[in-house]
């Protein structure tokens, strides 16, 4: 199972991130590549408890959907809507400098991977309470989903 807890998976994600450029074109969705980079950064800030994101959860999302998203051998589908606070076309962080924003995503993903085992993690806005292992799995899958969005 791929997760940011594994060095090999972190290296893979970082290598793929660096294949992106300002001209990378999306295969689906509405974000530009630069907006996607800022979305990943905002999502990482959410995971680290640095950015509040409004809840949109219910029993099904906290149980069945969470299990399917984190553990089923299925790729996340396109068209999943995000919360407004991490949607770059609504209230997410605006893109500034591509290289700087990309470096920020890399630093934030590494911060998630290095976070102490006994650290307090925030609730996910859809999945509710996640363990450290689940947050590291989510971070890998979420980043992978958006990298695939841009063909890397």
Largest sheet: number of strands, sense, barrel closure: none
List low-pLDDT spans: none
Q: Residue share in helices?
A: 40-55%
SS-derived structural category: mainly alpha
Radius of gyration from the alpha-carbon trace, in angstroms: 14 Å
> How many extended strands?
0
The number of helices is: 5
Report the sheet-strand fraction.
under 5%
Counting structural domains, the number is 1
| Element order: H for helix, E for strand | HHHHH
Query: How much is the average pLDDT?
Result: 91
Assign an overall shape: globular
For the termini, the CA-CA separation is 19 Å
Summarize the structure.
With 152 residues, this protein is mostly helical. The chain has helices spanning 7-17, 33-47, 59-71, 98-114, 132-149.
Strand and helix map with partners:
Layout: H1 7-17, H2 33-47, H3 59-71, H4 98-114, H5 132-149
What does this structure look like?
This protein has 5 helices and no strands. The chain has one domain. The chain has helices spanning 7-17, 33-47, 59-71, 98-114, 132-149. It is an all-alpha fold. Helix 1 runs parallel beside helix 5 (132-149). Helices cover 49% and strands 0% of the residues.
């Amino acid at each position: 199972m791929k997760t940011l807890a594994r060095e090999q998976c972190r290296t893979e994600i970082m290598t793929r991130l660096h294949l992106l450029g300002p001209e990378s074109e999306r295969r689906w969705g509405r974000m530009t590549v630069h907006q996607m980079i800022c979305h990943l950064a905002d999502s990482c800030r959410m995971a680290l408890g640095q950015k509040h994101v409004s809840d949109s959860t219910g029993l099904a999302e906290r149980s069945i959907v969470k299990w399917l998203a984190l553990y089923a051998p299925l790729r996340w589908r396109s068209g999943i809507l995000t919360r407004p606070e991490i949607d770059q076309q609504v209230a997410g962080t605006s893109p500034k400098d591509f290289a700087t924003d990309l470096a920020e995503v890399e630093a934030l993903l590494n911060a998630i991977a290095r976070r102490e085992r006994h650290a307090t993690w925030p609730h996910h806005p859809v999945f509710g309470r996640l363990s450290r292992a689940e947050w590291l799995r989510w971070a890998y899958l979420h980043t992978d989903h958006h990298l695939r969005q841009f063909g890397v």
